Structure formats: structure tokens, C-alpha cells
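In the current project phase, we have settled on a layout for protein records. One protein thus recorded is set out beneath this paragraph:
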Amino acid sequence: MNLMPKLALGFWNAWLLCVPWVLIGGVVAVFRKDVARRMSDMTGYSAKEKQVTVSASLAPYPFMAVAVWTPLSSIGGLLILGLVLCVMGTAAFFSTVYVFANAPLDQPLQVGLYRVSRNPLYISAACVFLGICLATSSLVLFGIFIVLLVLQHFMVLAEERACTRKYGEPYVAYARKVPRYLGWI
């Protein structure tokens, strides 16, 4: 991995890998304002939780800004692995947004990828961003990615506290049987 890759605007840069992610977010923001509002709802959050959530929500933008100027790697194995992770993450993100958009408001999400993780949106985002880090072999992007993960973790904790307050025992029971992220975590 390169600590400081040559940054230059070009067609074969990591911006290509950000396009599907931005398009999905843009479609939700424009055509499904109700879903965008629900995704950004911070009802019941403390002031600190709101601050962390806003920071975590903004964290992908510096990552994507650097990605625009970061060329894809010439290391074939990393490039292929990164592309596979990006495709998997984007597909999971799309699937999760679809489930989220069509879910009833009065109960916790427990269908689709929510059966294997309480936070599939964040796992899919992490796959996309890690894939971009690998596909570019950029330690700068990887550093931003680590900050993004830490912020997202604290945002997840705030969301889970809000879901516990909003849904009560059904959410607590769901949280007991489905991991926060994947597997044992």
C-alpha cells in the first residue's frame, strides 16, 4: 500500500467505485424523502449522540473526495479483491436500503440482511470503503476509513439505544439473537 499515492484526476480513479454508492443515496434523497428522513432521524438522541451521528454521517465525504483523486492500484490482486468487495458491499447496501424503504415504521427491521446483522447498512458501507482502500492500495484512504469505522460504531450505539427506547422488548429480543455486526460481534 502506498502512504502517499500520486493524486491526479483521471478516468481510472476510485471515483468510479463511488458512483453506485452516490447514485443510491441520491435516488433515496430525491425520490424517497420519507426514507431519507427516517434514516436521519435522531429523535431521543443526547446532544453528544447527535454530534457523533452527524460526524459519522459526514465522514464518508472526505473519503470520497480523496478517492476522486486516487488512481486504482496497479497491484492486480489488491485491485481484484477491492473490486469484489465494492460490488458485494454495493449490492448489500442496495438490498438493505430496499428493505428499509419498505419496512413498517412500528417495528424493528428483521428481514433481509437484518436477519444476520442489526446494522447491514454500515457493514455494506464498510465493505465498499475497504474495497476502495484495497483497489487503490492507499494508506491515506485506509486511515480515513479507520476514523469512519470508529465514528460509525458510536453512531450504531446511539441508534441501538434509540431503537431500544422506541421498540422496547421486541428490539431487545431481536438484539439478543442477531449480532450487532457479523458473527459474534
In short: Residues 1 and 8 are 17 Å apart (CA to CA). Helices lie at 15-31, 33-39, 47-58, 60-68, 76-101, 120-136, 139-167, 169-177. The two ends are 28 Å apart (CA to CA).
